[in-house]
Each structure stands twice: as C-alpha cells, then as structure tokens.
Design a protein that fits this description.
The complex is a heterodimer of chains A (321) and B (324). With 321 residues, chain A is mainly alpha-helical. Chain A has a domain of 218 residues. Chain A has 13 helices and no strands. In chain A, α8 packs antiparallel against α11. Chain A is globular. The mean pLDDT of chain A is 86. With 324 residues, chain B is α/β, with parallel strands linked by helices. In chain B, 35% of the residues lie in helices and 27% in strands. Chain B is built from eleven helices and 14 strands. In chain B, a hairpin with a 2-residue loop joins β1 and β2. The two termini of chain B are 19 Å apart. The chains are: A mainly alpha (321), B alpha/beta (324). Chains A and B meet through α1 and α6 of A and α2, β6, α3 and α4 of B.
C-alpha cells in the first residue's frame, strides 16, 4: 500500500517545476546578474561614502544601515533607484511568456488534460515567481545588512532591521505588480514577443515619459500671475496625485519614507503644519502610516491584474497549439 | 448490457453565430475502438474538448465513464487519457522527466512514477532516446511519447485527436498496432479521430462520420455501406458497343431479365450509356462471360467495392445523410 504522505499535491508539483524552470532559465540568470552587479556597484559607492563620514550624535545622521540603501556619491545611483528601475524589468521577464509559450508549445493542453483544476496552472506560475522573488529580495537585502555589519562594525538596531524587512516586502509587491501585468499580457497575447514588448513599453512609458508628460501638463495648468499660498499648495497636490498614477512613483514614495525616517510628509507642508514639530526621525509605525496608501495601491494594482488574467484564462478555450 | 463508456446526449456548441457541433448524440461502448472521421473543421476536436470538460457545451449532456464532464471534469480527466493533435513537451527536459511530471500531476508518488515512466518509454520504443531532450524529437517520436504520457495514468478511456497526421507510414503502422494492443491487452476503450480514411478503416470497430458539426452516420463499415449507399457491396459498371456494325444491341431489358434469374443482383440501371449492376457479391466475371457468350460486344467493365472511402466521398459530395 502507498502511504499518503509521499504523494505531492498536484499544485505543488507545478510550483516545484516552475521554480526550477525559472532558476534554470537564462533570462532569470541574466536579470539576476544585472541586479547583483548594479547593486554591488551602488553599495560600493555607498561604502566609500561611509568611510569618510563618521557617525555623529545628530538624530538625522543615525540609521547608517538605511543609508546603505539610499545614499550615493553621485557616480552611481543608489540601491533603491536601481531596484525601482530594474524591478519592473525583472517582473516582466518572469511573466511575459507564462501562458502563451505553453500554449504555443502545446504543453498547456497536455497539462490541462491531467486531473488538475485550470487555475492551478496560473496560480502556480504566479506563486513560483513570487517565491523566487521573495527569496531574491530578502537575501539581497540581508546580504547588504551583513556586508554593512562587517564593514561598519556597528550592529543595526531593531528598527533598522524592521524597516529593511518592510522595504523588502514593498519591493516584492512592486515587482509582483509588474509580474502580474506581464502574466496578464501573456494570457491576452498569443505571441510571447508581443506580450514582452507590451510589458516593456509600459515600463518605459512610466519610467521615462510619464514624468515628462506630467511636467508638460503642470506647465499648462499653472497660472501665470502670483496666486495665493493655498492655490499653490492645491496645484502642487494635484500634480503629485497625477504623478502617483505611476506605480514607480508609488514605490519611490514608499521606499524613501521607509528608508529615510526623516521624511515626515509626502506632500507639501505649510509653515503652520510644521510649527511645533520636533525635528526628529519618525518611528516605523508613523512612517508606515504615511505610506500605507502607496502600499495599498500597489497591492491593489497587483490584485487587479491578477484578477483580470485569471478571468481571461478561465474563460479561454484551450486548444492544442 | 454494460453502461456505455462515453455518452453524448444532444450536445451543441456554438461560437457566436457559428455552430461547431450541432445536436450530437453518440454512444461509445466499453472496449471498442471508435473512429471519428471527418474533414478538418468538422467539429471533431470540439467534441473531444467537451468530453474532457475543457470546453462547455452550449446545450446537452456529456458523460464519460458515467461522470458528467461539464460539472466534474477532474474526475473525468483522472480516467481519460487525452492525446492532443500535435502534442507538445517541455523541450528542455528528457522524456523521462516529462512523463514523471505528468504522473505526479496525477498524484502518483515520484518513485513509482519513475518506474512506470521507464516501462512506458520502453513500451513505445523510445528507450534509445531516453536521455535526449524532447526538443530534438521528431513528430512521430513526440506522438509516441504522447501515447506513453497518456498511458501513465492507467486510463480507462483514451482519446486520440488526429494522432496519425504528419507521421511517416511506418510510424503510423507502429502506432496503430500499439493502439490495437492496448485495446486487446488492457481492455481500454479508444476514441480515435482522424481525417485519414485508411487509418480509421484499419483499426476501428465502429466509425462515426462527422460533417459540419453533425454526425452523418455511425456503425461498422459493412453496415454503413449497406445503409448508406446501395444495399449491396459491389457496383459493376458495364458498357457495350451498341453501334450498328457490331450486331446485337445490349439493352436494359436483358439485364433485368438476368436479374430475375440471379439472386445476387439487387438492381440494375442505365446511366450515360453504361449499365450499372448492384450486387451483394462479386459477379463481374460471371457477367462478362454471359455477355460474351450471348454475342454482345463488351467494351467497358468497372467494378467498385464499397469501402469506407466510397461512403466518405458519398457523404462529402452531399449524399443523403443517414444518422442513427
């Protein structure tokens, strides 16, 4: 008689296979190499900056570990800039051919004729990518922490560790957002190239052109004469809100606030609001409160794309090739 | 009588205005090889997808092994092996890895899966390429691996969608022999769809002919030809030189006279100067002798045996449909 525990549930069989496929695939290895190289570069510049700057008692100057992620000496962008730039590409590269390549190879109809539910395939692919991403980001960030510990020689505070963990989670959600967008394209477009190009063009649009377009709009709607302080603030808020339609902007807002505890507000503050404020870094809870909308929005976007992909996939008739 | 293994009741499938399958009824018994014959785009694949619950019928009920495919596709897929047309494998994996993956999706533990996969690879004759990646496989090899992939779950029914298209004749022969073996040794019921008459004729116990989403005819070859065409199995066409110089003139009356004497002849008719004799046996030799003996000048004789091809062509050309 067979024992029950030796049977792996079909869902996890698919997840296992997908994870091994991702890890063995050239594109993941290439993306990983790019991420590692750029991050090493930015860390190196951060460390060289550290050698000259000795810690002081100024509260703004504490949180060395967080600075590893955010400072740069101008030669290379900082760690978070790289993550916000390369993260989407990583997500797109993992998802753009999730469904359509299986369909084109004729393996999708073979797998679906096995006794599994159809959504297993989509869910397992998403989960497998998410697991790989989580391992990647947590280990990357913990490595940075470890190097920092070795080089600086001061252990990180609990708050710093928590902030870095939160940063990892936000990064994963951000990359998952792009992953789901590209999975959606892989369900929608028959050709893997079309879906890859669609994903990359959206990424390019948001990372390069979107800011330009918003600037043009801002120029257009800003009044020429002097206006009141309140009008100026509301104009600034409007522009900022348009900017926040860009997922990259949401990610930047969220990570900056998490990694720079000195950030007190993501919008304009009036002098009245500032008066009486103690110039000290925010505790983690407060920083989280500040960026909660950003995190929620990213998370919601992720879910929306996944939901759309799911709906399309479940309704699709699966024929061979 | 045992419960039929596949039962389709008045199923229809519509894509917008287009009706792919139109009010189809079909029953397949346990242990038979059933051939689904029809041209491309006649609704064969759609019907098969509905049997597996991979697409939902617009109307009607599909039961496989007594289970409703539309509402319980998982249970059905546990018992049915489906080999799609032009099946695909993960190119960067070996045949063994591909089979083990399928087996594990069926809940077979890994050790057992490996053992089974190795047996099946040997059975379908792919031992020599066991460690090659399937990306390098030819179509025939993929099709054979596909059969192994189907068998790894020990199915009660196998559904093969165009399994022989694009394989060389030798490969087809091996494949068909394998199918017959499976039926004989394991009592597996097999549904075989194809547009190739020869292959279907060779292995199938019963045949259903599909045209524009309708089942035009069902039955074994003999009964099909009997029902559809003539009632007879042979059509003999005769022509005689009836010019004045040749002497005696051959008439329909002569044949009618002959028919009343010979039981084998079912009917006679005249068409475009040719006499057509339908008979249950091959009487062409007897006929020609008789004609010569009586001093007529026979100048044309053509014998047609009604195989599946004639039936198929008859239907393709819009002949009278006979649905059971």
């Amino acid at each position: 008689m067979q024992t029950n525990h030796s049977i792996v549930r079909p869902f996890w069989v698919i997840v296992n296979k997908e994870i091994s496929d991702i890890i063995k695939s050239w594109r993941f290895i290439i993306m990983l190499a790019i991420v590692l190289l750029t991050c090493t570069g930015s860390l190196y510049t951060a460390f060289t900056g550290f050698a000259t700057a000795k810690p002081t008692n100024d509260p703004e100057e504490s949180f060395f570990f967080l600075k590893l992620f955010t400072i740069s000496d101008g030669t290379l962008p900082s760690f978070i800039v790289f993550i916000s730039f390369l993260g989407p590409l990583l997500g797109i590269s993992m998802g753009f051919d999730a469904i359509n390549s299986e369909q084109n190879k004729g393996t999708l109809s073979r797998v679906l004729s096995q006794p599994i539910y159809r959504d297993y395939v989509l869910n397992a692919k998403f989960l497998a990518s998410l697991i790989v991403l989580s391992i990647l980001f947590f280990s990357l960030n913990l490595l940075v922490l470890g190097f920092g510990l070795v080089i600086i020689g001061i252990p990180p505070t609990a708050e710093e560790v928590f902030r870095i963990l939160m940063f990892s989670i936000v990064s994963i959600v951000y990359v998952a957002f792009w992953l789901n967008l590209s999975i959606l394209f892989s369900v929608g477009f028959r050709q893997a190239t079309t879906s890859a190009l669609a994903g990359i063009s959206i990424w390019l649009f948001f990372s390069i052109f979107y800011n330009m377009i918003v600037n043009v709009i801002a120029k257009g709607i800003s009044p020429r004469q002097m206006i009141s302080e309140y009008q100026l603030v509301s104009l600034q808020k409007l522009i900022q809100n348009i900017m926040r339609l860009n997922p990259g902007q949401l990610f930047d807002d969220a990570t900056t606030t998490l990694l720079v505890p000195g950030v007190r507000s993501l919008g304009p503050l009036t002098m009245e609001q500032m008066s009486g404020a103690i110039p000290s870094p925010l505790p983690l809870g407060q920083s989280m409160m500040l960026v909660w909308p950003q995190i929620t929005a990213l998370f919601a976007g992720t879910l929306v794309f996944f939901g759309l992909a799911y709906m399309l996939f479940m309704r699709r008739e699966i024929r061979s090739r | 009588m045992a419960e039929p293994i596949i039962q389709l009741q008045n199923i229809s499938k519509k894509y917008g205005d287009f009706t792919a399958v139109d009010d189809l009824c079909l029953t397949i018994e346990k242990g038979e090889i059933f051939g689904l014959l029809g041209p491309n785009g006649s609704g064969k694949s759609t019907t098969i997808l509905m049997m597996l619950g991979l697409t939902e019928p617009s109307a009607g009920e599909v039961k496989v092994c007594g289970i409703d495919s539309t509402s319980h596709p998982i249970e059905v897929k546990r018992k049915v092996g489906y080999l799609a047309e032009d099946v695909g494998f993960y190119d960067d994996q070996t045949p063994l890895e591909n089979l083990v993956y399928s087996a594990m999706l069926n809940g077979i533990p890994k050790k057992e899966a490996i053992k089974k996969a190795e047996e099946l690879i040997e059975r379908v004759g792919l031992t020599g390429v066991k460690n090659k990646k399937t990306g390098k496989f030819s179509k025939g090899m993929r099709q054979r691996l596909g059969l192994a992939d189907v068998l790894i779950k020990d199915p009660e029914v196998i559904i093969l969608d165009e399994p022989t298209s694009g394989i060389d004749p030798k490969g087809v022969q091996d494949f068909l022999n394998l199918i017959i073996e499976l039926r004989d040794e394991h009592g597996i019921s097999i549904l075989f769809s194809s547009h190739d008459l020869q292959h279907v004729q060779q292995v199938c116990d019963r045949i259903g002919i599909f045209l524009e989403g309708r089942l035009m005819a069902v039955g074994d070859i003999r009964s099909l030809s009997a029902k559809l065409l003539t009632g007879g199995r042979y059509l003999i066409e005769l022509g005689a030189d009836n010019s004045r110089e040749a002497g005696k003139k051959l008439t329909l009356g002569w044949f009618q006279n002959l028919a009343s004497n010979m039981n084998e002849i079912d009917s006679v008719s005249e068409e475009n100067g040719l006499f057509k004799v339908l008979s249950s046996q091959d009487i062409s030799l007897v006929l020609s002798k008789k004609i010569m003996e009586e001093g007529y000048n026979l100048n044309f004789l053509n014998k047609k045996e009604f195989g599946i091809e004639a039936i198929y062509n008859h239907l393709m050309e819009g002949g009278t449909a006979y649905a059971n």
